[in-house]
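[09:14] KT: can someone run the structure on this one? pasting the chain below
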Amino acid sequence: MHRVLLIDDDKAVLSINGEFLKNRGYEVHMACCIKDAIESIKKVSPDCIVMDVMMPDTDGFDGFGLIRSVSAAPILYLSGRTDEADRIRGLSIGADDYIAKPCSLNELALRIDINIRRQMRLEKKAGILLFPPLKIELIEHRALYGDEEIALSNREFDVLVFLAKHNGEVVTFEQIGKEIMGTYLDSDRKNVMVSVSRLRKRLEGYVGLEDMIETVWGKGYCFRG
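[09:31] RB: done, structure tokens below
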């Protein structure tokens, strides 16, 4: 299920758009200002962000950089500001799409879907998993915090990749064991726990990465990218 974050100071618009997208199978999160949106992004790591330009705290143009600094997801403007200058400005600063209000809900869902699929193709082609400020380069076999490489053993890197590929999902001890060791017995649980513990210690030295791996007691772990 893809996660969509809607950012708009009009609660009626949020409610209507959100309900429609939920019925289309999306997991929908909402925010009424840029500040709340950033907090939501850190918690849910959306696959697509739809934001208005007019905001009560920071407008959507000025807030674009703040949003982009914490998320690599496609950003779509949905705004009543439809002048050519506004559309050009939005697209020029890096938005993936600019949609004029009022907009058909079917068209909105289609544009969201198109941008999510495009992003997935680009990331797969580049062999990169992005969870700003963390970047995992699969081909180069390295993890980066910004431009700084994080020193990881091969096993730690493999565990990180497996968890990251299942972002937001509970991954069991058995699943991790089979992935990194090829087989799994109940006695292997300790080995899995040690590997995850070592990876956590590597990440603890980087602001924003300290709580990326959540323990799900009795089951395994959940990566919160």
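[09:33] KT: thanks! The mean pLDDT is 90.
[09:34] RB: yep, looked fine to me
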